[in-house]
Write a structure and sequence with these properties.
- By secondary structure, the protein is α/β, with parallel strands linked by helices.
- The chain folds into two domains: 4-196 and 243-258, Thiamin diphosphate (ThDP)-binding fold, Pyr/PP domains (Rossmann fold); 266-399, Rossmann fold.
- 39% of the residues lie in helices and 19% in strands.
- It is built from 13 helices and 17 strands.
- It has helices at residues 11-21, 36-48, 61-73, 84-89, 91-99, 124-127, 142-159, 184-190, 229-258, 284-297, 315-322, 342-351, 374-389, and strands at residues 4-9, 26-29, 54-57, 78-82, 105-110, 135-138, 163-168, 177-182, 218-219, 225-226, 266-269, 276-280, 302-307, 309-311, 327-332, 359-364, 398-399.
- The chain has a seven-stranded mixed β-sheet, sandwiched between helices. The protein has a six-stranded mixed β-sheet with strand order 11-13-12-15-16-17, sandwiched between helices. A two-stranded antiparallel ribbon has the order 1-8.
- Helix 1 (11-21) packs across helix 2.
- The protein is globular.
């Protein structure tokens, strides 16, 4: 068990503490609300000498991730953070970092996408790149933010895939909570130096990095048969699937080292005898625990299943926890336009054809920072149950606190 100091800090400060404790060597960031104070804190530590790292001030988010790509390619442990349209601006390099199999860790402080401009929270930004090949981990409070970042470096460097640690803007990024900050010695024991990179960078053995790769395998200049584009993609996919085992392993190892763990792929509350399960990712899950308690006080056996790892999608873990339930209500803070909430879609697909699969309903809430209370969530659960009892089979997405009048 490590020695820890308890500090009352924001979620952004928790992220910065984790990057410092991970001994990152290169940081590149461009300011954007509500991420900015992560970079500000790290910059101050670099300036003071408390963090012996290179802080690269860049002109855009695209450049920030470009710097991280170059530094990670040659073997440095790197970190960056962004939000919303900043993530959109670096989109090309989001794909490049993943395809190049670089263990970059990025903090994504979830914020609504423009237009229209909105600096408040939802999860549309991270959902827009859910298929870009990164591991995506979601946090419910500030302690989990710090701990998940430390785990993220270990996960990324074990499978050579970048990891995006997502947490809700303002609701966590700017809210203070008591956080146990581990000692540098304990983190060093948990997170050793980064292994040698996959990419060979040797002046005496020059080679192209990220060359044009055609569809079919082809021999290189030495006659070695090299993978085609499809083989590269299949190997990347397999590495992401490996994360379904690595994420829980690292979480368990973290628990042994620090005395707390976060559930690995998922977490749950009051789930053992639950007939109605409420599902969400991020801080909304904490509100769902209050809603579940309220529903139980009224005789509804409700429980909560939080999605901590959204990519790769933990289909088997979710099936194991949801089979045999009567109903599942998924709360998305994002929208796949023209269809429904993305977590709801993935969960419905995962449960299709499973014996004893429950009805899966969907709800969208909190877009652009729209207030949503535990009682609002409980009301949505009651509406879903009423429709279920009435035999409604084609229930549309429930928009919570939507007001179209006027």
């Amino acid at each position: 068990m490590s020695t820890e100091a308890v500090e009352v800090i924001t979620g952004n400060e928790a992220a910065a503490h984790a990057a410092r404790l991970a001994r990152v060597q290169v940081i590149a960031a461009y300011p954007i609300t509500p991420q900015t104070s992560v970079a500000e804190q790290l910059s101050a530590w670099v300036e003071s000498g408390e963090l012996p790292a290179e802080f690269v001030t860049v002109e855009s988010e695209h450049s920030a991730l470009s710097v991280c790509i170059a530094a990670s390619t040659v073997g440095a442990r790197v970190f960056t953070a962004t939000s919303a349209n900043g993530l959109a601006y670096m989109n090309e390099q989001v794909w490049w970092a993943a395809g190049a199999r670089l263990p970059i860790v990025m903090g994504l402080v979830n914020r609504a996408m423009a237009a229209p401009w909105n600096v408040l929270n939802d999860q549309q930004d991270s959902m827009s790149v859910r298929d870009a090949g990164w591991v995506q981990l979601y946090c419910r409070d500030n302690q989990e933010i710090l701990d998940t970042f430390l785990q993220a470096f270990r996960v990324a460097e074990r499978i050579n895939v970048p990891v995006m640690v997502c947490y809700d803007g303002f609701l966590l990024s700017h809210t203070v909570m008591p956080v146990s900050v581990p000692s540098q010695e304990s983190v060093d024991a948990f997170l050793p130096k980064r292994p040698e990179p996959l990419t060979v960078v040797d002046p005496s053995d020059p080679r192209n990095i990220g060359p044009v790769t055609l569809a079919d395998p082809r021999a290189d200049a030495s006659g070695t048969l090299c993978h085609g584009y499809m083989e590269v993609r299949a190997l990347h996919h397999e590495a992401l699937l490996d994360a379904l085992e690595v994420v829980p392993e690292v979480d368990a190892e973290f628990g042994e080292a620090f005395g707390r763990a976060w559930g690995g792929l998922t977490w749950d509350y009051l789930l053992d005898d639950a007939e109605l399960v409420l599902v969400a990712a991020g801080s909304l899950g904490t509100q769902l625990t209050v809603a579940a308690e309220s529903l139980r006080a009224q005789g509804v056996k409700a429980g909560v299943l939080g999605v901590r790892c959204y990519r790769p999608f933990p289909a088997a873990a979710l099936r194991g926890k949801l089979s045999g339930r009567k109903g599942v209500l998924v709360f998305d803070k994002s929208l796949s336009y023209g269809y429904e909430g993305p977590i709801c879609t993935d969960l419905r697909a995962a449960m299709a054809g499973v014996p004893g699969a429950p009805i899966v309903w969907g709800a969208v809430c909190g877009l652009g920072g729209r207030d949503v209370s535990p009682e609002d969530l409980a009301d949505a659960a009651r509406r879903a149950l009423a429709d279920g009892h009435a035999g409604v089979t084609d229930r549309p997405t429930d928009w919570i606190n939507l007001r179209l009048e006027g």
